[in-house]
Structure formats: C-alpha cells, structure tokens
Amino acid sequence: MILRTAWPAMLWLIAAPALALEVPPSAVLASADESPAETRLVPVGPWTAEGTEVTRGTGAVRREAWTVPGTALTTDQLTDPLIAGLARDGYTLLFSCRDNECGGFDFRYELDLLPEPEMHVDLGDYAYAAARAPGDDGELIALTVSRSATTGYIHILRIDPGGAPRPTPAPTPPPTQAAAAEPVSGEGAGLTERLMAEGHVALEDLAFATGSATLEDRPFASLAELAAWMRDRPGTRITLVGHSDAVGALDRNIALSRARAEAVALRLVEAHDIAPARLSAEGVGYLAPRAPNDTEAGRAVNRRVEVVLQSE
Questions:
Q1: Which of 19, 66, 197, 235 has the fewest CB atoms within 10 Å, measured from its CB?
Q2: Whole domain around residue 281: which residue ranges?
Q3: Are 173 and 25 contacting, i.e. CB atoms less than 8 angstroms apart?
C-alpha cells in the first residue's frame, strides 16, 4: 500500500485519545457491535494454500461499519488516510494488501466483518490493513475498505486489551458559511423520515454496472427500509426518478436514467412484494444536478435514483 502525502480538502481530521483517523465527513456509521472480553484472530499475512498467518488479540472488541454514500473516492483513497492516521499515532503496521495479493475470496472470508448490507466487500476491489498500538498490550486494529459503484465501505475492528473498546468519533465536517446560513432540512434523519419531511430522497446505496441499467444482485438497505415503510402505509404511491451525469447526449441519458428507475421499481416488486400500481418510474437525465458536472466527484453525486412521494 502506497501512502500519499496529498489528500483532498474534503477530508477532516478527527481525533480520539489513542487514534487519529481521517474519514470523509459524509461517512455514516451504519452498524456497530461490542464484546467486553473475547479473543479474535486477525490476519497478518496473505491467504495461501497452507493457511493465513494470524495474530491473536484478546480484550474488549468493537466492530464498526461505515458507509460513504455518493463518493467518487477510490478504495486506495479511502484507505490511505486511515493508515496514515495510525502511523502518526505510533501504531506499527503489521500487514497490508489489496484484493488479489491478499488472497481474493479466500482471504476475504477469513475476515471478522459485520455482514451485508452494512459492510459490502467487492472481491475485486478491496484493501486490508492490520496495525498494533505501542506497548506489549497495545490496541490491535484491522481495517477493511471496499466500494460499490456509488458508495464507499469502511470496516474497523478494534481489540483493546486494556478495557472497554473505544468507539470511533463521528466525522464532523469543517463548518462553512453556506452550511451555517442554510441547514439542510431533515439532515441526520432516516431515509423515510427525510422523504416525509422533504417529499423526495435519494437512494444513496444503489449500485449499477457502469453505463448499464442492471441493478446489482444483492440486498440494499435503502430499498428494505422504503418497502417496510410502504407496507405500513398501503395508500402510499411513489415515483422513482433516475438522474445521470452530463456525459453524453441528453436523450441517451434520459433513457438510461429512466431504465435505472424502472430497475429499482422492479426490484421493489419482485424482492419486496410492493404492488406495481403503487410505483412509477421516470428519468430526467442530467437536468436536475446536485453538483457541478465538471469533476468526477460531482458527476458521481449526480448519478442517482430518487424517490418522490406522490400520495400518502
């Protein structure tokens, strides 16, 4: 793993008493669990036919799964600041690797991870690192980072022999004049709460193949939440609206964005038993951007499917 000295300005330093991490301010803690005293095996070498070299950690255990919705950052760009933060705090890097050099499928299933959909691992695009804090009884940390087409995933395993596990602080973005003057309505609320408060909400965790309307064949937390909410409100109807970036002709982007919205509607019908009559699908291409289309980060944010509330 190559550590880079330059880093995008969007990242914000957050500090804990024994660990500094740099994560995107848009990161969301999707899931976490704790155990007061356990022994866990942490890989410190690649998978081979003879097995994987591990180190044993005993103490208070905490697992955290973070999602970074709508990000254009690569897996390396998400991973490197975490490793750099460990190094600054005096942690010793025990091992780091990328997907195939780790051992691909076999190595991934040696990892102690929270399950899908909160922690998604693309077997062809993930990074791993293990490190130990100074001292004979230093905290042991294992990082696993991956991404889908539109979402980054960061998993942090902490094993602290000294006592209670220390949670990672929630990321706090640097204040801006615009943010102070005009807070976002419903920010911090759940997906359906924002839908009811604002009338529309983006399904940030969806993932499509590049240039395709094929929705990845895996569970999506946003669709499960939306479907459960609709089952509790049998009179509710929604429109799914596809959006694209500004690369290519408008008619092609409208067709692609509508096809993606239709794919989401079909998934709600087939996987979540929502009646087709309660759903409609439209596409607007690049006509309603959330960010400028002159950067890859902006284009990634603009590629999305939104839910628009029609009636309740």
A1: 235
A2: 184-311
A3: yes
Cα distance between residue 67 and residue 215, in whole Å: 19
Q: Is residue 215 located within the same domain as residue 154?
A: no
Grouping H, G, I as helix, E, B as strand and the rest as coil, residue 300 is: helix
Q: For residue 60, is it within any domain?
A: yes
Q: Which of 111, 155, 165, 103 is nearest to 133 (CA)?
A: 165
> In this predicted model, what pLDDT tens digit does every residue of 156-168 receive, in sequence order?
999 998 765 566 6
| 56 domain residue, yes or no | yes
- Alpha helix segments (H runs only) across 148-280: 177-181, 191-198, 221-232, 250-272
* Six token digits for residue 38: 């356990």
Q: Residue 25: which of 71, 65, 63 has the closest Cα? A: 71
The residue to which tokens 């009338």 are assigned: 199
Q: Residue 237: count other Cβ atoms within 10 Å of its Cβ.
A: 16
Determine how β-strand 279-283 pairs with β-strand 237-243.
Answer: parallel
Helix (H, G, I), strand (E, B) or coil at 308: strand
Whether residue 155 is found in the same domain as residue 266: no
- Does the predicted model carry a pTM greater than 0.85? no
Clarify whether residues 127 and 258 are in a common domain.
no
77-103 per-position pLDDT tens digit: 888 888 888 888 888 999 999 998 999
Q: What is each CA distance from 279 to 14, 249, 307, in whole angstroms?
A: 42, 27, 10
Q: Which residue, 113, 123, 187, is CA-closest to 157?
A: 113
Determine the residue type at 9.
Answer: A
